[in-house]
Amino acid sequence: MYSKLQLYYMSGTGNSFRAAEWMADTTQSQGLHLSVQAMDAIRPAQVQSEAGTLTGLFLPTHAFTAPWGMIRFVLQWPRVKTAEAFVLVTRGGLEFGRFHMPGMEGTAGYLMALLLRWKGYRIRGVMGLDMPSNWLTVHPSLSPQSVESMESRAQPKAEGYILDLLAGKSRWHGWICLLLGLLLAPASLGYLLYGRFFLAKMFFANEQCNRCGLCAQNCPFGAIRMRGSPYWTYSCESCMRCMAYCPKEAIEAGHSWAIVLYYLASIPVGVYMARWLGGGARVVQYGYYLLSILLAYGIFWRLIRIRWINRLFTWTTLTHVFRRYHEPSTPLGAWTRRPDS
Length: 341
Ligand SMILES: Cc1cc2nc3c(=O)[nH]c(=O)nc-3n(C[C@H](O)[C@H](O)[C@H](O)COP(=O)(O)O)c2cc1C
Ligand code: SF4
Ligand code: SF4
Known about the structure:
Blueprint: E1 4-9, H1 15-26, E2 33-38, E3 53-60, H2 68-75, E4 84-96, E5 99-101, H3 108-118, E6 122-132, H4 144-166, E7 171-172, H5 175-183, H6 185-200, E8 203-205, H7 214-218, E9 224-227, E10 229-232, H8 241-245, E11 251-253, H9 255-277, H10 281-303, H11 307-315
Parallel strand pairs: 1-2, 1-3, 3-4, 4-6, 6-7
Antiparallel strand pairs: 4-5, 8-11, 9-10
Helix pairs in contact: 1-4, 9-10
Residues 12, 219, 221, 223-224, 232, 236-242 line the site of one iron/sulfur cluster.
């Protein structure tokens, strides 16, 4: 049915990349031309597809929807006439002892499917796949045993899914998640408009940082500038790669800093100005929000060069004690493009 399988992925900590690799590996015996490429390794305009090609899109869930970086990537794809595609969204599962809590991809899969449809692709299916949650800003990594057991459940599901598609079946999963995602759409929108910028400016490097620059070199969105020490810009998508792979475990998301940031960003305009700004309040509030966080971070970033201030914020963030996570079989170098076969 197909002569080529081309898989594109966005992946912060390796989960979505691993799912793509499982699928590619399991189809290797079928004589297909295979390619697995990172979204940041190609230009969107280079994405091509013709009859006989099945295109797969792999991405993580961020706030019950697709990350903005992936939405933007697909928006820039050229239109096609006769191509087919599917979407696989990885989501963050959690495990507490014997209790397993599945992740929730919300609107992520169907939103990407809709965008692909608009680009001219015939959609063959959408799937959500539980992988260990990588949201290190809010919780520590799962234990290695939980990671292993979750992956051992995920791998056969991913493999079975692609084999079904190649056998000509269509597979649409995640309707309940889609419904919940639609109910939670205001939260997803809030994340896209506000949350991701806030999270980007929570990052800082603690005293262990040796300024090696690995975090900046490997950020899929080019969001870290090395100004002596790393400086996080608004391009950050909170994919967690820098935090997961820093060899010194020096990257923190400052919880105490977030409290300061929250008050700086919300109180003045919210309380004093909104009353007399009327309808324009939202726009002014939003502008103030982005600007105040940017300025505050600039000051904070200079201040944490002073040792005791850096220590203060390091010791008062939970990430300082959180275990880091990345997909266990995925070292940093795995992001390089898998050669076409
Ligand atoms: C900022 C952020 C938001 C997240 N939001 C969700 C979510 O809404 N639902 C969910 O199930 N998992 C969520 N996760 C977990 C990831 O989607 C999940 O661990 C995914 O497999 C990570 O894949 P990657 O390593 O390919 O980036 C979130 C993770 C991050 C970093
Ligand atoms: S990878 Fe870690 S040690 Fe290296 S510059 Fe980034 S934060 Fe510092
Ligand atoms: S700065 Fe870190 S968390 Fe943000 S997009 Fe880059 S690698 Fe991901």
